[in-house]
Design a protein that fits this description.
Elements lengths: L5 H12 L1 H6 L2 E6 L7 E4 L2 E5 L2 E6 L6 E4 L5
Antiparallel strand pairs: 1-4, 2-3, 2-5
Length: about 70
Amino acid sequence: MMKPPVILVVSSFLLLGGCATIMHGTYQKIEVASSPVGARVWVDSSEVGITPLSVSVKRNNDHLITVSLSFAG
């Protein structure tokens, strides 16, 4: 029985890893909700809106999503 060369097997895994990005795009939509509604939302230190909302973030990157609601005292 013939075994495929190691370089061929490794190359296949590396090439197939990019298929998710090709099939699903370079951005991902994330739904953000809060209870109660009306919380402010930031993605990577930039304010993007008020809950409920959906945000689009770049895939394969780390992101920090912050949700904050202030109560008047």
